[in-house]
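Researcher: For the record, we're logging two predictions in this thread. I'll number them. Prediction 1 follows.
Model: Prediction 1, sequence and structure:
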Amino acid sequence: MALTDPPNRTFSETLLGKDGSLIPELGEFIIAHKDEVEEKGGSENEMNKLLTAIKLAAKVVNREISKAGLADILGAAGSENVQGEAQQKLDVFANTKFMQALANRDVVCGICSEEDDEFIPVNPNCHYVLLMDPLDGSSNIDVNVSVGTIFSIYRRITPVGSLPELKDFLQPGKKQIAAGYVLYGSSTMLVVTTGKGVHGFTLDPSLGTFYLSHRDMRFPDKARVYSVNEGNFKAFPEGIKKFLSWCQTEESDRPYTLRYIGSMVSDFHRNLLQGGIYLYPPTKKDQKGKLRLLYEGNPMAFIAEQAGGKATDGFTRVMDLQPTELHERTPIYVGNTGMVESLEKFMEQYPNP
């Protein structure tokens, strides 16, 4: 549509690209790319409703985060999640809002959250199950640092019309239909893949609408950033220690730069835009790492691969791992393919802790 053409909507209700074309809203984009969803046996209508529920909950959570410090939503809630971690008030709030948005719209047959012990059956007549980390990096809220929501969508295994079962959720990451994250930062972004590239949508707070702002996101060819909590260096496996020392060596295009926020969504998003690798290794205390395969590992691995990157546990592709329990943990190294493959070489050379 040219700038001189009469708009279908008033100017205050639409955004125009540099070429004068309409910038699609998330729902419009999914409709335009419905073949990508249907290729994997999904339903464009159900997927659109599901993502609409996610973006609604994200807007509600974003509103609460933006007034943190004014409302009584900071600090611990006085309870622990299934992993034994202290729940923050916003953890509980975000979990509730996403559950309500998804359940009230009958868009999934079941939901499983990092914050809950078991999965929750919803509508047996739906095709999808959803797994989520409702508020990643929530401990950063108290110091006004960016946090996020991560979600993963699978087509159910059990017959439509029956209640979901555990096996619907315990699928390897390569079976994902879609995955994404919401970043609550200086602007609020929803980044999503349905298996054909990665696209970012930015919230226009004046309209309450997510517009396409980053089409076909890809990791840059060159990367010079690594993101890890180096405070645990002495407890890392030997291969990781060697890799980090290599990153710090003055040679060729090295040393690389350390950038670590402490929120996986924030660190991953920066590395996606600027190039880099995110590491969460095991330690002597947490021998399987601390991140969850189903709520963090698989969705971020799917997004990374669709953006031209790679994700591994050090020896195996993350999306090939077969989960055996809902809250299974895994080490994860995700980012630019070249950096991940360099890390894998060190892990192969030094396989022992």
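Researcher: Logged. Prediction 2.
Model: Prediction 2, sequence and structure:
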Amino acid sequence: MPNVLLLRSPSGDPSVPDKYESLFANERFWVASVPVLETGLTNIEELGTHIMRGTSYQGVIITSARSCEAWRAALQSMESTSGKRDPSFFAVVRGEPIDSAESSHAVPFYVVGKASSDALSSICHDFPGYPLLPHDIRGETSGTSEQLAEFIVSDLPTRPATLLYLTGDKNRDTLPRILEHAGIEPRPLQVYGTTCSPTFPARLDKVVDICSDSDWWIVCFAPSASGYALPALRLHFAFPGEQQSHPAAVRARLAAIGQTTHAYLRDECGFIVDAVASKPNPEALLAAIQGASNPAA
């Protein structure tokens, strides 16, 4: 039975089965999720200020689940401060006519992947009446930031345009460059930062110790997490493309959740990546690994 190691945090709700783990387990893979990074939110109060000025933007760009968490945290902070959910209250604060309070609902939210789309949809349900809610979610079928940028360029008719762009502490310039070339200004706001989890090496040791099978797939979900994880991974695994490895290492193959992570592993680390998901979701990842495991099928 092949082992699949997912370098990610499992589903945040322990009462709900993790979609990745459930799908692979159903296909007779032994699967485990080991979080590599710890993420902390930042600039939440400033994000709340941007939310209050929502109608000054022609759109919002969200490319990660962490950015969705930051949006929710900003609304929770506003709730604790105002204790109100009346749209007219927020309209008055912004200096708008009361009957324009719902106008921010028309602001499109551009996202990468269904996970971010689902997270934003739950915010609409939990915070009715708040300004700049993500009622209009677009681009969820985009598999990368580059694809999302191209989608925004084709979808957004207004020029010039300014979009609020929520970021982490590590971002490539691909999306901003494409938008700026098309006359769209992405206004970045960092809302989270990542560091390596101090418990990752110990958790990895535990997972490897309980698995006797030598058939391993290591799935990378982000360049930053991959970079942090590599020193500990090299103590246990030997990867395609490596010239040297630890004497006790077992052979493992690499899979990437998308083209950005694939490019990092290939270009920055010199690895051969055997499977790349066509979209950032469990089904596409499973299909890529199954296809690479059984190329003649």
